[in-house]
Specification:
159 residues; alpha+beta; 4-stranded antiparallel beta sheet; 3-stranded antiparallel beta sheet; 4 helices; 7 strands
């Protein structure tokens, strides 16, 4: 297998890709926040006169709900509109090579904890906090099918 793709992530695409990659932790935070808000509301109804702790729980719950999205959007604003450089990704029998104008790095297939295709991205996860995100549009349909067949044959594709 030999696939080469060129792409530049847009800020909106990077935000969507990060949400997709961090979906589990994003969901845990939001659900935890909603539980804290609910417990705070119940505590407010149950306590007579001493509602400080209940209000504290509701405010913390609100932070859990809002903070993941706020952090992602703040990072997007901080990067600016032209922050993403053009990338070249080469996929072959040995692994993945990612190149920009100033740097190049390669990882063998064994370095990836899992590989998945989700929400318009190929997600090559290295660890819980690190991944290479390649938009499906960069590969095109025939190359995407070749990659999927290659990864299924080697039992690397999660799903």
């Amino acid at each position: 297998m030999q696939i080469t793709a060129h792409y530049t992530l847009t800020p909106a695409e990077a935000l969507r890709g990060t949400r997709t990659f961090k979906l589990l932790w994003y969901a845990v935070s939001v659900i935890s926040g909603l539980v804290l808000i609910l417990l705070g509301l119940v505590g407010t109804q149950a306590s007579q006169g001493q509602q400080g702790f209940s209000i504290f729980m509701m405010l913390n719950g609100l932070l859990f709900v809002v903070l993941p999205e706020a952090v992602l959007r703040w990072a997007r604003l901080r990067r600016g509109a032209q922050a993403y450089t053009p990338m070249e990704v080469r996929l072959d029998d040995d692994g993945l090579t990612l190149s920009t104008d100033s740097a190049e790095g390669s990882l063998p297939w064994a370095a990836f904890a899992d590989i998945q295709r989700r929400s318009g991205f190929w997600i090559f996860r290295i660890s819980r906090s690190q991944a290479v995100l390649v938009p499906e549009r960069a590969l095109g349909a025939p190359a995407g099918e070749d990659l999927e067949a290659f990864l299924r044959e080697r039992k690397l594709l999660k799903r």
